[in-house]
Amino acid sequence: MRDLTDALREFSAERLTALLTARADLAVPPPSDLADLATRAAAPQSVRRALDSLNRRDLTVAEAVAALPEPTSQQVADLVGFDARESLDRLTDLALTWAPAPGSIRAVDGLSRSFGPHPGGLAEPSAYPLDPDAIDHALTGLPDAAMAVVTKLMWGPPTGAVRNADRVVTDPVTPIDHLLARGLLRARDAHTVELPREVALRLRGGFAAASVAEPSPLPAGRRPARIVDSAAIGSAYEFVHQLEGILDELTRRTPAPLRTGGLAARDLTTLARAVGASPERVGFALEVARAAGLIVTTGPAIVPTDAFERWLALGPDERWVRVVRDWYAGPRWPALARTESGRPLGPDAEPGWAAMVRAAVLAPLAPGLSVDAERLAELAAWQRPAITRAGKPEDLVEAVLTEAGWLGLTAFEQVSSLVQALEGTLPDDIAARFPAFIDRLVLQADLTAIATGPLDRPTAAALALLADVESRGGGGVFRFHAGSVARAFEAGWSAQTIEEWLERHSSTGIPQPLRFLVADIARLHGTVRVGAARSYVRIDDPARLETVLAHPAAEELGVRRAGPETLVADADPADMVALLRELGLTPAAEGAAGDLLATPAPRRPPAPGRTRPRVIDAVGIAAILRTRAEAHESALATEDALTTLTRACAEAQTVEVDYVAADGVASRGVGVPTELAAGTVRLVGDDMLVLPLARVTAVRPAAT
Fold first, then answer.
1. How far apart are CA 473 and CA 276, in angstroms?
2. 597 in a domain, yes or no?
3. What is the domain range of residue 566?
4. Do 355 and 282 reside in the same domain of the chain?
5. Residue 511, preceding peptide bond in cis (omega within 30° of 0)
6. What are 507-527's pLDDT values in tens digits?
7. pTM metric for this prediction
8. N- to C-terminal Cα separation, the chain
9. Domain count for the chain
10. Which pLDDT tens digit goes with each residue over 434-464?
């Protein structure tokens, strides 16, 4: 085989499908033919992506191939010190190497470039290498300072700059003199010395810096699965419940992002206090909400999107599955926001490697396994060595496991069954164990309401008008007070509507104190009405009217008397409402006809466009490439056959012609070609045949 294109022609449709699946970037856009595919497969950027998907053993073999002169074969096993056939097959299947002939291996250009000028930290093979005994003898009695030099060069780069590197040393004085005199360093030019490859390998005791043996898997946990899953489901529901509360708070508070991006520490603390959670958990929930498109962080405020309303329409288990998958595949690394200088939703929490690291850390997890952070770090670093570019594996694992615990993927330091939702579907028996929505409340005489489970959205939305959250839990405790009940009146509810709703949703009836509260607010509500004139205020109590006029802000808002019960202002109605509420009044919005207006529901901004992973039809693309390759091979065969027929016709030679008959049956004819014209050949033998050249599959001289 001359090149990678020739090697790819030997790939079956199944092997091409596997290649395009493993290296999805090669299929976007679909390659035009195998030559195009080969060019992409050898591109350095694509090769780098493919190398990032390799485990430590395969990556070590790939670097050894890049370090050896081409073509190579058994030398790879000699260099790495283990049977490399399986890894070499993997590299060939990924189109990172190809075999020009049986038993030999060549690397694509991008592979060698990916490991820099010194793959494996080794110099080029020596023209006259030292044997092991000579190296051991040269190292004997070597001064400590000289040994420090070779130790520094041992793992690469193997070169260093010195003066007069090519000098002849007869009486060594300096450490470099000792190394040059013993052949442990060689001059590459007048200014550069190099540690010979064989010396570095002898000092290392092998090619790789770390063991290529796969670490042992995680041990089985000791707790029963049902207990672990129950605790995990509790954590999962708690997270979803807190997330809903946080987004409801954002609807009311709408904090502005910092100029540099992210949420201010003060706003984070306020949110955390409102939902009864730690700032770290609230910051993580905000990051998850952003990944799921439930909030937007651009513009003047951080607010929920219309996707939040659609999310609320889902069941508890569906809500959890939606956000946990977006967290798993998202590009952000929330742990960066938990650092001293970090900010939730800040611009620095999107490093580009987040999804890859999460996948590597969580890949070894399966239901029932014990979560051993130290062993998990070893497994992740072995399975995906590329994660070490992101940081220490131990720190990365700690960050992921913290968030996995909050989400319910783990509990009691053991993997729960919920982890199956990351790559597949949540089992039905697990989904059924999530708390079911309820629409009933326990109303108490102390003006509180207790929800014994998660409220469905219509009930929760209505209760949010009537009462404030006092504490959160599986359901929550809500408190009625004058301001909260007035809020319902402002939304257009009447006293009768409120009492009917409470009767319908209470499992204990309406306590007398709550009836009195509703009746009191009904008598007071609407005695102050606000409209646009730019604004006007009608007050039927002269004392209250004078209180408004005397407020320091009245002059700033342009408030003035327009009648015995009417004020007008050069301010928007919303500003007047805020002033009146500050004075302890309960104003109601009024329409042009004098009727009360309901407070409109908040308008949600649209969720940001989400980048969906492109669905690659690897099977279809592979089939097209194979068809085009076969057509190309058929064209080459036809071209060769035409050359042979032309020569035989000129020299009147007898040939054997393989062809496909009109009925599709493979056939053979023997004779002398006498005429080549109009895409046909006339063959004269025992019988005369006129064959279309397109049906000719092979031509060879007839046996004598």
1. 9
2. no
3. 528-585
4. yes
5. no
6. 989 999 999 999 999 888 765
7. 0.74
8. 33
9. 6
10. 988 889 999 999 999 999 888 888 888 889 8
